[in-house]
Design goal:
The chain folds into two domains: 6-207 and 500-529; 218-497, Carbon-nitrogen hydrolase (Nitrilase/N-carbamoyl-D-aminoacid amidohydrolase). Helix content is 42%, strand content 16%. The protein has 15 helices and 14 strands.
């Protein structure tokens, strides 16, 4: 095999990965995206400082990949975007660095060890305090939902496992010059695709023979610019009551006595709203009146705060008001208004690192201000479902929370029959960012076999069915509302019932690989130290 310059292999890998990422419908490219990286490591095997050189080229590739797929974060914060690109690329490169050492010390398990290590990294990246799982490889297949119906068993980490397995299989065949065996990974991919279509067929047959309830839903998209109109302090700023009017007005012709849900976006109600007297707050009066003597429930996002009586700091996110001598928390909140009252509320719990949450207290002053409240927000201590007047339960996911499959499962295990998302994707402008966010929500539908209703302040509002198919969506930058019949489901998928088994097993597998590597390393040193007889 002729050698190719490392910089070319590094950039080829990055370009393939970027070209295969949503919203582009070219996910098949991801199955060869890392092949140049493994070829690169093979070419460096006889060089000095090979691990450092390999890591540097991998880092370049992953930095280009991160930049090519999430460059739009720059529109919200230039500094935050640079920090995110540098740090996330670094974290993603660590499994490759470990692979380089495995390749030298334990070549027989190196590729398998890499797959396990990368899966463990992604699962960890879902769960630590600075979680940013936007580029989990399994999300890369979001634009082709017909191929990932088996996520109802594995979650999106199953997609990561398949992508990595095919990559290492192809790379190993090329490195060992066994090109005649390339049909094997192709068969694996084809088998998973066939399995996906079979699952969809069986689910459709079950759908036709079962009686499924539905809820009449009206979804609002007020289309308020987040910089100038929603949170800005300039001439373009819209007062909270005007913003609410913008959200209500497009829905008025669609609402009637049959409507079960009016879904409004994240922070539809802005301002400092004290949770102690929401029902006396004039901003909430129009929505309360709409639900009086009606089965209508209004699910909407709101900015709220809560005051504590405690003299000691009650939560890690609480702030102290020296004027009043009291502790308080700001919240990004979803509320359920029914029967004329604010009946239920939920505080966003999966917060955006660097915007709504600082992972380390020392960084609190460096938080990115996207308008409204910056710094660490308060959270709910568990997933909270909203109950409709007909008894159905709805999961009120707020924006970034729709990226977390395990978290959506918590709602469904607690009885959620429908997923709802309230969001504001206008921070990024008309870029791939809001399209990616929409498609990631479709993955949640497949994993849980739940329909999703989605209201975006600016971005895309949509109705997605349990197969991940987007049945209706709005255009970007339009003030509009639409009506849909969202179906309610009660069955639990394997993934919902048993959790992220792949993630847990990857932790165990990584420990085994890690211990085995160091065992081989220590044993090798002992052999090297033995005197020659």
């Amino acid at each position: 095999m002729n050698k190719i310059k490392p910089v070319y292999l590094s950039l080829i890998s990055a370009i393939i990965l970027v070209a295969g990422w949503p919203p582009l419908p070219t996910a098949f490219l991801l199955f060869v995206g890392f092949v140049p990286i493994f070829i690169l490591r093979e070419q460096l095997s006889s060089q000095s400082k090979k691990h450092l050189k390999f890591w540097a080229w991998v880092y370049l590739s992953l930095f280009v990949f991160n930049t090519g797929t999430t460059w739009w974060v720059w529109n919200a914060s230039a500094g935050g975007s640079i920090a995110m690109l540098i740090f996330n690329s670094l974290l993603m490169s660590l499994p490759f660095l470990f692979y380089s050492y495995l390749r030298e010390r334990t070549p027989q398990i190196a590729l398998t060890g890499f797959v396990i290590t990368y899966l463990a990294f992604e699962y960890w990246h879902f769960n630590w305090s600075a979680a940013w799982p936007w580029l989990t490889l399994g999300k890369g297949m979001a634009s082709l939902p017909s191929l990932i119906q088996w996520y109802e068993y594995t979650g999106e980490l199953g997609g990561t496992a398949l992508i990595l397995t095919v990559n290492v299989w192809i790379a190993n065949s090329i490195i060992k010059n066994k090109l005649s065996k390339l049909w094997q990974p192709a068969v694996l991919f084809s088998a998973m695709a066939l399995f996906s279509y079979t699952l969809a067929y069986l689910e459709l047959r079950k759908e036709k023979t079962s009686k499924t309830r539905s809820v009449t839903t009206v979804i609002s998209q007020p289309n308020i610019d987040p910089y100038e109109e929603k949170f800005g302090d300039g001439d373009g700023y819209l007062y909270p009551e005007i913003q609410l009017d913008y959200a209500i007005e497009p829905t008025e012709k669609l609402l009637d006595s049959t409507t079960d849900i009016l879904l409004m976006p994240e922070t539809a109600i802005v301002g400092n709203n004290d949770e102690a007297d929401l029902n006396d707050n004039f901003l909430f009066q129009p929505l309360r009146q709409m639900t009086q003597n009606s089965k209508l429930c209004v699910i909407a996002g709101a900015e709220t705060f809560g005051v504590y009586k405690s003299k000691q700091r009650p939560t890690s996110t609480a702030r102290y008001d020296s004027f009043d001598g009291r502790w308080f928390d700001y919240f990004n909140t979803a509320i359920n208004i029914k029967n004329g009252d604010v009946a239920e509320k939920y505080h966003k719990s999966k917060l955006v690192p660097g915007v709504e949450k600082m992972p380390f207290p020392i960084l609190e002053k460096l938080s990115i201000n996207l308008g409204g409240t910056s710094g660490s927000l308060g959270i709910s201590d568990r997933a909270v479902n909203f109950q409709l007047n007909n008894g159905a339960k709805v999961a009120p996911l707020i924006c970034y929370e729709s990226v977390f499959g395990d978290y959506a499962c918590e709602y469904v295990r607690d009885g959620a029959q429908l997923l709802s998302v309230v969001t504001n994707d206008g921070w990024w402008g008309e870029t791939p960012g809001y399209r990616q966010h929409l498609l990631y929500g479709a993955i949640r539908c497949i994993e849980t076999r739940r329909d999703m209703i989605r209201s975006a302040n600016t971005g895309v509002s949509a109705y997605i069915n349990k197969f991940g198919s987007i049945l209706h969506q709005t255009k970007y930058n339009e003030r509009i509302a639409f009506k849909c019949q969202a179906k309610l489901y009660t069955d639990q998928t394997f993934y919902v019932r048993y959790g992220n088994i792949i993630g847990l097993l990857s932790y165990l597998g990584f420990v085994i690989v890690f211990v085995y590597y160091f065992y081989k390393k220590i044993r090798s040193r002992k052999l090297d130290d033995q005197p020659i007889s």
